[in-house]
Write a structure and sequence with these properties.
Blueprint lengths: L13 H4 L7 H6 L9 E5 L6 E7 L3 E2 L4 E2 L20 H4 L8 H6 L9 H4 L4 H4 L9 E2 L18
Parallel strand pairs: 2-5
Antiparallel strand pairs: 1-2, 3-4
This protein binds iron/sulfur cluster (2 copies).
């Protein structure tokens, strides 16, 4: 599969040399590994604040490509979908998937070798079994009271 994210012409390992708030838009976008896990529905424990991801996917997620089927106009259908930016990462990092590049860098951790920026292959995230490819269930067909039965272990 060709890479839907333009990662050409970027400085080698730019994420190790610049803080997140100094990245260009292109560098910021290139950090996304394309796993699709941030498009899974989550359950949050009100008391402990713990977040669990479920295999119940957002209605717009295509779990073959692991991409949003309507990204440019998604807010018409899913108004609550966030636009992640360096300025709001502090607010959102706690619920982001544990393998998410934004969360890893926010925590001061390195990226995994399967990240397309390191492997040079957009499919390496799928080959490593880290993406949602082929294993989500529909939120239309899964009532919210059953989401607990679909909690996934992380990192996978
Ligand atoms: S979890 Fe992070 S790396 Fe994966 S698709 Fe979402 S933003 Fe990209
Ligand atoms: S609207 Fe698109 S980007 Fe937002 S959570 Fe759903 S599938 Fe993901």
């Amino acid at each position: 599969m060709s890479d839907p994210i333009d990662r050409k012409g970027l400085a080698k390992r730019f994420w190790e040399r610049k803080p997140l708030n100094k990245l260009s838009d292109k560098e910021w976008e290139a950090l996304c590994d394309g796993c699709g896990k941030c498009c899974l529905n989550k359950l949050e424990d009100e008391d402990s604040g713990e977040v669990a991801l479920t295999r119940v996917a957002c209605r717009l997620l295509d779990d073959e490509t692991c991409r949003c089927a309507q990204y440019p106009i998604r807010h018409q259908f899913v108004p609550e979908c966030i636009v992640l930016k360096p300025e709001n990462l502090d607010t959102h990092a706690y619920w982001m998937p544990q393998t998410c590049a934004y969360r890893l860098l926010w925590q001061g951790k390195p990226l995994y070798d399967w990240h397309p920026l390191i492997s040079g292959d957009p499919d390496s995230v799928h080959k490593a079994g880290v993406s949602v490819q082929g294993w989500t269930v529909s939120e239309f067909e899964t009532p919210e009271e059953e989401w607990e039965d679909h909690i996934i272990e992380e990192p996978i």
